[in-house]
Amino acid sequence: MAVAIVLLLLFLPFVPLAFSGLSPNGAPPMSDVAALLRLKESFTNSSALSTWSEATSPCDQNSTWYGVVCEGNLTGLRLSGLGLSGNIDIDALLQFDGLRSISFDNNSFSGPLPAFERLTALKSIYLSDNQFSGALPDNFFIHLNHLKKLWLDGNHITGTIPSSLGYATSLIELHMERNKFEGTLPSITPPPSLSSLNVSYNDLEGTIPAGFNKFDSSSFEGNPYLCSTQTADKPCQKHQMTPNNSKNIISICIVVMIVMALLVAVVQAVKTDTESSSYTLGVERDLPYNKVQSPTKVGGSSRRNSFSVTLWSRRSVSSVHSVPKEDNTAGISTGDLVIVNQNKGVFGMLDLMKAAAEVLGSGGIGSVYKAAMINGVVVAVKRVKDMNRVAKEVFDMEMSRLGRLRHPNILPLLAYNFRKDEKLLVSEFIPKGSLLYVLHGDRGMDHAALDWPTRVLIARGVARGMVYLHTNLSSLDLPHGNLKSGNILLAPDFQPLLVDFGFCPLLSPSAAQQAMLAFQSPEHLLSGQPVGRKSDVYCFGIVLLELLSGKFPSQYLQHGKGGTDLIVWANNAISEAREAEFFDPSFLEKYKPSLPDMKRLLHIAVDCLEPDVEKRPDMKEVTSRIEVVVADVERVNKNNGSSGEPAVNSHAAYVRDGANDRPTRRSGSTNDRLSRGSDNAQVFSIS
Ligand SMILES: *[C@@H]1O[C@H](CO)[C@@H](O)[C@H](O)[C@H]1NC(C)=O
Ligand SMILES: *[C@@H]1O[C@H](CO)[C@@H](O)[C@H](O)[C@H]1NC(C)=O
Ligand SMILES: *[C@@H]1O[C@H](CO)[C@@H](O)[C@H](O)[C@H]1NC(C)=O
Ligand SMILES: *[C@@H]1O[C@H](CO)[C@@H](O)[C@H](O)[C@H]1NC(C)=O
Ligand SMILES: *[C@@H]1O[C@H](CO)[C@@H](O)[C@H](O)[C@H]1NC(C)=O
Q: Where do the Protein kinase domain residues begin and end (predicted)?
């Protein structure tokens, strides 16, 4: 009981949203009837929906509600060809957790496209043959990783085709023909699942990127300036630049003037946005997160709270002028930003400044921001204050070393910015968030997908990533140092991606001591021994217990107040032969035949937590023991047909960059680089 109260206090900022049943928008939940009537109200001509009335319920057996599709819950809306116009109330649609398909095609809707991208569980969206106009936001597809069919044909939509398209990893049909899309096709590899694409009869230009070659030429017809190959017989740009030098110089001058004007505008904005003129990147005092002593960002709503922030200080603005220069040893320097990994292309401070930014949260060693750049790449930017242990040269070396790491279970650093008092660390943004968030914060589809086979694969992925770090950062005493579920991000296929490793030599000793979980190991706490790679093994043991029990470990909280002491519980469960009570009930029933494997994993975890460092196994040994369990789990589930395939397989389209040694289970049909999200686990990390 006491534990529950402490936890409640820790989660206080989220309590109103997470526990009192309010909807994400803060409004009280609506009944299905009320939500549908509110949707109807947003239409201007709803005479075709006279059957929608309070008298009956939409999903009753003998419901008369037109166009409402129910399978238990409301799953679809088929409102094609009804002469509807006006708005489409997305907030009303957000009330339906089960909604998977909407058809508004062949109506008279006009104006900018409503924010359908907020309905992230949708599998099909039919909007053909209306009069929608305006552009799609560039991050339109970022969270639509369940979307299979999108029909937008026959509207008046303008702007470019969003490069975030690569994130729609389930997309099969994309129809954008007969609109006013302009610009070039995004230079991405389209999702491998995409089999039907049509962008014909728009105003596209440029050359069709190689990734789109598999589609029929009729998919591209009717775009006068779109070329299949760069040829001389057809202009591939609407307004060809003449090879006249003086004209070029004039246009360069214009570009320079625009950039200058932009910089002035940004500086002005920075000035007016804050009272303190030096820094605007941190707006902590406004953040609800920081009102808690120990920020445990696991509240279900924390990811939805977004703030617009001005990301960079005036000082960095002024240094953006510097010409990007290449330097093969330290990476590419673009302004203040040093690129250490080019998998996501080269970008500079200016790109980050122009990005739509959002606060994700703050944890042990800094605050994290999400920045969606206009080139479609979305990154997580971590701002760290206490990384001032080493000189710039050493810092540069460490960063380029971290940027060179390549492993399917490692999320490498992309870029960094060094300033004396503060560092910015940029990595890819991973939409699903951290294991901590999915396990304890979010009770949605992702949590449901964390069944037993998936958790075993996560355990294996984390173990493999750790072995890689212990091998490739062998000069470090503490290769990771802060392994915990908040620093394990989940790729779309639930493969774990480790973040925030290798920071120990960079942090001031007091900050490291404060923020890093390895310092909570018994060798350090009880015997005062130095932390080392076996301390990483200890942290891994806690993650295993967390995966097995589904409970929040008290070890993540300062002074162990709150959460469940999983170590004590696990040891008791084993000594009293009551292991079954330890396992998360959400998978235990369904996977009963795997109970012996669950017990084996529990024993591995307890061995990792062995207080005597000498007796504690190393990462390699732990990993090979886990591999054996995984093999057995796979065998058991094959024999026990009812258990179904682990969710991991259904998202197999996702592949990490430079992953040569892919785990065997991944189908690996793709090289789609954009379909990978990035790091925001630190977000929910705990000091
Ligand atoms: C309203 O919808 C009906 C069909 O449902 C259609 O016949 C009528 O023309 C529409 N009215 C307007 C003003 O669009
Ligand atoms: C459905 O219709 C039957 C008669 O056809 C009626 O008895 C029953 O009450 C109706 N159910 C609902 C929920 O309206
Ligand atoms: C319908 O949805 C609600 C929440 O949206 C859920 O609690 C309930 O179990 C669902 N019912 C069915 C039959 O799917
Ligand atoms: C579009 O809707 C109208 C009624 O509003 C219908 O007559 C027509 O057949 C529909 N067209 C298509 C292509 O479905
Ligand atoms: C694309 O749409 C155009 C216009 O509707 C059509 O002529 C063409 O056949 C379509 N191509 C494909 C591959 O769907």
A: 354-630
